[in-house]
Amino acid sequence: MDDPWREVEVVWREDGTFLGMNPKKATVQMGSAEGKPGISPMEMILMGVGGCTGMDVANILKKKREPVEAIKLRVRGKRVEEYPQVYSEIEVEYLIYGNGIDPKAVEQAIKLSEEKYCSVSAMLRKSVELRWSYQILALEVIG
């Protein structure tokens, strides 16, 4: 990795929202305005955990040639009442869709992501209790 720094821009808009943009010009709206729902910064942290570990698990299962058709993650966080109201617990539920998927392969992929590869989990684990669970579901259950 030549340059370890990563940079994004976050710009305040007149409607009170903030627009986040990465160098490739992908954007995300933080805060709601004019009837358009936005994502809160704390929700973005949960999405970051889900995206990071989800990519890891998908890639590991693909390399293992598991017959995965789809993956959905449900990520929830419990915040403390005192300000700054940080997360004290985060739970990640992996919903793995496909027929004939080996549960041991799923467990190994999740463990590798959570303990070795997912940088978001590694960073949060220092201050947040992280837990995970998974379900393997038949393809016709996707909803």
Summarize the structure in words.
This protein has 143 residues and is of the alpha+beta class. The protein is 31% helix and 29% strand. It has three helices and six strands, in the order βββαββααβ. The strands form two sheets. It has a three-stranded antiparallel beta sheet, with no helix packed on it.
Précis, in short:
By secondary structure, this protein is of the alpha+beta class.
CATH class of the largest domain: Alpha Beta
List segments where confidence is low: pLDDT < 50 over at least 5 consecutive residues.
none
* Gap between N and C termini: 39 Å
**% residues in beta strands:** 25-35%
The biggest beta sheet reads: 3 strands, antiparallel
Count of individual beta strands: 6
The 3D shape can be described as: globular
What is the assigned CATH homologous superfamily of the largest domain? K homology (KH) domain
Chain-averaged pLDDT:
93
Helix content: 25-40%
What is the CATH topology classification name of the largest domain? GMP Synthetase, Chain A, domain 3
Gross CATH architecture of the largest domain: 2-Layer Sandwich
Count of DSSP-assigned helices:
3
Number of domains: 2
The succession of helices and strands, N to C, reads EEEHEEHHE
Structural class: alpha+beta
